[in-house]
Amino acid sequence: MREPAPQPSAPQRSGRVPTRVGLGDRSFRLLALLAGVLVLVILALIVVSTTNQALPAFRHMGFRFFTSSRWAPPEDEYGALSFIYGTAVVSVLALVLAVPVSLGLAVYLSEIAPAKARSAVIYAIDLLAAVPSVVWGLWGFLVLRSPMQDFYQRLSDLLSPLPLVGRLFEGPVSGLSFATAGTILALMITPIITSLSREVMDTVPAAQKEAAWALGSTRWEMIRGAVWPYSRGGIIGAVVLGLGRAMGETIAVALVIGSSGQITARLFAAGDALPSQIANQFNESEGLFRSALIALGVTLFFFTIVVNLGARALIARSTRHVRGVAR
Length: 327
Prior knowledge:
mainly alpha, MetI-like fold, two-stranded antiparallel ribbon, 11 helices, 2 strands, globular
């Protein structure tokens, strides 16, 4: 009896990726690595070049550059404290005004708004984000200045007698002031924070929301217990991006802040900031004066790095907390 002929065995899969696909992956990985290294190299070159040009001012003033508020170029006196103070005040004021509105809009668009209203509001927010900063500044200078001065006067008459906080609203008031600059910056960063926060909230898994509904939660309880913890890290990142925009804004702030380098608790008084001071005086500067202005830019860059590092720490802490709760 003849034995059956052996059947050809099925080809075994080696599990190896084809050479062409492997080459494509390696090429993409190399390009991504080169792009990342290029960004770091450009950043390092910016730091080195600007710091070298700012060294004469740092050497001339020493640590007094950061502790003195006297800015007198004819006398070779360059103190940046008043400009650092002005940048901090208008940036914090912008966040105080913008963050509640932005988060409220993001929650509305993500969880509450009907489809038609959602599309219309998102379109309007995107248009606001595309408005150039010089347009915001001109609008604030030409249109907003006089009405805001009248509003500041009424607010000052009402709130300045109050203890403690009354000093913030004392007169005399000016339409070109810390408050006006902070208001313009708040209008500029609200679309950014809103758009990013909304996109983060849209990534919350539907299962988390449905679990909250199943437990009998109200809409607010669902947002607070399911949406907010999952989105916290991304929202912090969005707020920091808005803060970075506020700290670095130049033209809009230069037009509405008043260009008066002073340290005062009065929000309705004129002031100045690091970017606006550089923009207003750089074309007329030379020698040590120009080096001092570049030193203002280096100072702003340093504070931006510190803010970003702090934000990364907050985001990492929030992420660890969310993971711990999820486990």
